[in-house]
């Protein structure tokens, strides 16, 4: 099974230059190696996501919660509903 790297956006927006630099290094490495990263600490709440689905900006049909798909080209995508 492929490991999906994870970064926390709160590290990037923190006051710590060390955390910011580590975030940048980690996200860069993830995109270079597999072209994908799981982002934690974002500011999207469930109401905003549901509203986006309601207005057609996100599609709920056929999406699996927290399931990962690895395409033949090696890019992974995470879908949630």
Mean pLDDT: 77
Share of helical residues? 25-40%
Any idea what the radius of gyration is?
15 Å
Give the neighbour order of strands across the main sheet: 1-2
* Parts with pLDDT < 50 across at least 5 consecutive residues: 62-76
Structural class designation? alpha+beta
Characterize the overall form. flat
Q: What count of domains describes the coordinates? A: 1
Q: How many E-type strands?
A: 4
The largest sheet, given as strand count, sense and whether it forms a barrel, is: 2 strands, parallel
Distance between the termini: 23 Å
Beta-strand fraction estimate: 15-25%
Number of distinct helices: 3
Helix-strand pattern: EHHEHEE
Structure explained in plain terms:
The protein is α+β, with helices and mostly antiparallel strands and 81 residues long. The chain has one domain (6-79). The chain has 3 helices and 4 strands. Strand 3 (67-70) and strand 4 form a beta hairpin. The longest helix is centred in the first third of the chain and has 17 residues, at 17-33.
């Amino acid at each position: 099974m492929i490991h999906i790297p994870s970064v926390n956006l709160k590290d990037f927006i923190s006051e710590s230059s060390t955390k910011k630099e580590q975030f940048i290094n980690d996200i860069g490495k993830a995109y270079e190696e597999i072209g994908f990263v799981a982002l934690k600490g974002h500011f999207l709440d469930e109401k905003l996501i549901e509203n986006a689905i309601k207005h057609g900006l996100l599609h709920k049909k056929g999406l699996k919660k927290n399931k990962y798909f690895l395409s033949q080209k090696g890019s992974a995508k995470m879908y949630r509903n």
